Amino acid sequence: MAEDFILETTGLVKEFRGFVAVNGVDLNVRRGHIHALIGPNGAGKTTCFNLLTKFLEPTRGAIRFNGIDITGEVPEKIARRGIVRSFQISAVFPHLTVLENVRIALQRKLGTSFHFWKSERSLDCLKDRAMELLAAVDLQGYADMVTVEMPYGRKRALEIATTLALDPELMLLDEPTQGMGHEDVHRVMELIKKVSANRTILMVEHNMKVVAGISDTLTVLARGSVLAEGPYAEVAANPLVIEAYMGTEVDELASPAGH
Questions:
Q1: Domain end point (choices 152, 167, 182)
Q2: What does the pLDDT look like over 41-68, one tens digit per residue?
Q3: Would you say the C-alpha torsion 202, 207, 210, 216 has a positive or negative sign?
């Protein structure tokens, strides 16, 4: 049923001066699921994300969110609808404390983000909610730390907390475990599982252990087109997917050992 899908794209195309980066992508993201977008480098994954959040305009095709056509909407309106993206490069304020970062994100939700002349006391009402969000990502012990001093993996957890502050219905995570050591990867995997309890997550991710461990559905892109879609075991066994990945990545795709 269509209402089972929170996000749908039909024939999504993006051309750059004759180069087709995204080529007729039909994406169906089921409500309440963790859906991974994977593919070799240059497959069109990030371009797809940019189209969904309207950082890029599609050349052709349609995007529907909760059954409503949002293809012509501006990024701010899409964010207000409940689609919030966390970026590949950590997007937090390095010289503010962890708590202040989350509080600023909560201010954005209230629509008071640029009222810098307000007294700090007026933001105290947001502290309890900010601490709840930090607890949700296991950062309550870091509340007073200046963000620049945090370990890298914890910064990504903070970024997820600031995304959660906007109360998204659909979270778009762009390479959430990029550049992390094994321990941080495992922690962020568990965190994504935890925060997905009452929302939908669409993520671009290179780490196949992460994809195998937490995704309900995978869409594989290659050269801008959908190569395969389905559960991990089915997609990993698809000869077209194996051919697209080639070499060492095939072994990783076929057997996510250590998970």
A1: 167
A2: 889 999 999 999 889 999 999 999 999 9
A3: positive
| Sheet bearing 34-38, strands edge to edge | 83-86, 170-174, 200-204, 34-38, 217-222, 225-230
- H or E segment at 209? helix 208-214
Pairing between β-strand 200-204 and β-strand 19-30 as defined by DSSP bridges? unpaired
Do 61 and 138 share a domain, yes or no?
A: no
Residue 189 and residue 123 in one domain: no
The answer to whether the predicted template modeling score (pTM) of the entire model surpasses 0.90 is no
Question: What's the chain's average pLDDT?
Answer: 87
Distance CA 181, CA 178 (A): 9
Instruction: Give phi and psi for 39, each to the nearest 5.
Output: 155, 160
Q: How many domains does the chain have?
A: 2
Do 71 and 43 sit in the same domain of this protein? yes
* pLDDT single digits (tens) 107-134: 876 655 455 555 566 667 788 899 999 9
Domain range enclosing 8: 1-82+169-259
Yes or no: say if 134 and 140 are a contact pair by the CB < 8 Å rule. yes
